[in-house]
């Protein structure tokens, strides 16, 4: 590893940052080993859902740890620092989305499913095709989300540990991946959940302390903080307080924002790694409690980022942020240094790393559960597996290792890609392929296998096609100062879809496809299973019970 | 497809309740409409309020920029109101579910599990 002298962020001490991060890894690994020693994650229900043994409060904290990724923390604070109000719009979409999960999805999913999203979607359908489809979209969403986190790790390394060589960054990405695989293999869902709980507490407490610190500098007057941020930004300052600094340029960018807003609010309740967390509690009532905890914690955190963003704008200044490596992503770390010097910067850097680690572990366990439970057991083995629970866990563990390696390689390749774009892509697929299918399954009696397949595969395909032919991939104008286009590919232009975000088109089309697939099929829906699903989802009768431990 | 079994097959075999009879019972129908009468209108309301906010932010930035107190403008107040409404709906729903929904759901579940329905 090349630890060059000098620093990427002025005042950053790479050795201290690595030391604090190592302490976090050692403590969490200790916790993971401790909680899994009490009961080895040997059975499938233990490995996937910790036997449903977490309380609503524990799960709610873990959900916020799972949901508040590095993109939320570094990305939103940075966007607010540079674009003011437009950065705030992201947080609102990410938060309001939880009401969809609370009112329409969480409890009903908890009552009908066991381990995966496929359990619910395939409940009253033909098992194999629907499970294969559910697993495909689970793997797609998890993969994009995973890439975003790993690419973020690369950027963070450059920023905080001053590792600038690509080889050095790749090694750190590999280390992050290896630690994550260890969490998942040793601790299963129970260990992963505790890592997420620890991380959530650190992240929210860290952001809370910085928020109070910033506010105290302004006599707890938000208005004077914002005025200071405006003054510091100079000419561009007046635009900070109102929407439009980032998205108001033209009719297309405005429409793009509406499209993004739609994907954010409808994507959350279709994210497989969030849905799976509802199975870690014993009852629907506890699932409800978890979402309530999650909403309060996530809402509070986004209020903190509002203050941190404007604080970074006022105390660090947009010019210094733009000039730092990582640009917008460096706003929160720079603010930490401004407030508390090298030590606070080191702590915030370690928290940001911990964030990536916890989110990646959650994604890996979800993807491996979906592969082992939906594809291996139900599609490949037709549900006929000897000694099912043990075999399933064995397959899931192997899958976790494979996914970990894929994530490391993907992260190395995606290093330097736009993180926000990858996260938005995951949300767009979740909102298009998953949410319509989930809602139809839970609330529409007539919905059948063909409808489910059309909405999942159709939603997935439409989203991917629209993104491939969007300006995100090719054809954005070349920036004269850097000589590079903001698109992923340079020097080619094959885009025909005008928007960066496909949600506005792909979400309504997926709902339509689910409807058409159902009404155009001769297949009768299975009324017996539909009755069972509806009664179980509402009453909790026959739901998976928590395993005592 | 008849050889395929749903995921519930590993549960211990016991007499399956007659789900269709339960579903058709007036108690269950009342429970179902009770839930839908609450969650559908509330979901429609908060999604409309959110979309209205997103559309205002996209197409009426001048309106959002009208200052109210100091640097605090209409846009920020509406944004913070989204937080307030989210917290309020959450609290309202939980109270409703605990008092008005759970007792009925539990009663039906106990009847199913006791085999009386």
UniProtKB/TrEMBL annotation, chain A:
It is found in: Cell membrane. Keywords: Cell membrane, Membrane, Symport, Transmembrane, Transmembrane helix, Transport. It is a multi-pass membrane protein. InterPro entries: Na/Glc_symporter_sf (IPR038377), Na/solute_symporter (IPR001734), Sodium:Solute_Symporter (IPR050277). GO terms for molecular function: acetate transmembrane transporter activity; symporter activity. The chain crosses the membrane at residues 15-35, 67-85, 91-109, 130-148, 168-188, 200-220, 257-279, 291-316, 343-365, 395-413, 419-440, 452-473, 503-520. Gene3D superfamilies: Sodium/glucose cotransporter (1.20.1730.10). NCBIfam families: sss. This is Cation/acetate symporter.
From TrEMBL, chain B:
Keywords: Membrane, Transmembrane, Transmembrane helix. It comes from the Bacteria. InterPro entries: DUF485. Pfam families: DUF485 (PF04341). Residues 1-21 are annotated as: Disordered. The chain crosses the membrane at residues 38-60, 66-94. This is Uncharacterized membrane protein, DUF485 family. It comes from Pseudonocardia oroxyli.
